[in-house]
Amino acid sequence: MRPYQHSFLIVLTVLSFLLCIESALAQVQHTNEWSTRSTSWAYSSSDKPSIDTSANSPSGGGALRFTYPAATYSTSTSGGRAEYGALSGTEYYFGHWIKWSPGFTWNAVGTKIDYIWGRNKALAFNAYPYVATRVNSGGNGLVIDVGVDTTHSRYCNRTVPTFATGRWYWFEIRVKLNTVGSRNGVVEIWVDDVQCMSYTDVMITDVNTTWGYFLHSPEWGGGGGTIPATQYIWVDHTVISRSRIGRPGSTTSGDTTPPASPTAITVR
Q: pTM of the entire structure?
């Protein structure tokens, strides 16, 4: 091989590598490290979350903290809400770190994590198409509530995670809106890169719309209950992307190929 041919091949290899990186980055719409509140986010509740610089997040810096004071509540209680309202597509991946404070008491009905709302209202239900994630009592399981679907709640059908308090988990969800009149919407969830849930027959909307809003809005409960001591939920390194994100530091990041269904795996 002539020297100039060898140099040409090296240049081509480097350019191909850079193009792959650029393509992967182009799929990411937004990242927030929560050391400060980005202007892309609104705190849209009276009980506002706060930036906690002592949360020891895997990403370093600060983390977004939601506070739940000790009390007996007659209804669900909010730790605050952070809302991102610049969505415009029909398919997204949302990923972030999450941690419940040591000894966290989950509500008997469920403790919410995130909401994803459609841009336009649904005709049949006069409500926004939405997907809500929640954890059951004791940190067991994970449930998706879909506003328009008659199968309102979807449960883990790959693995069933059990969450411990006082440690960080990487949480990622994929949502793809259905074609109006068809059950072909998609909902998938990974916890620490282990797929917990995959449904491809979901009716999320009954009108032509796009996604509009992503919310960190971890409500405590589907009703009242008692919180015995002040407790917290932290989230950090929120990523909004058009392709698979993957747990930071893992080889899954940027991989859009769904992983094989794992067996006999429990997330702890």
A: 0.83
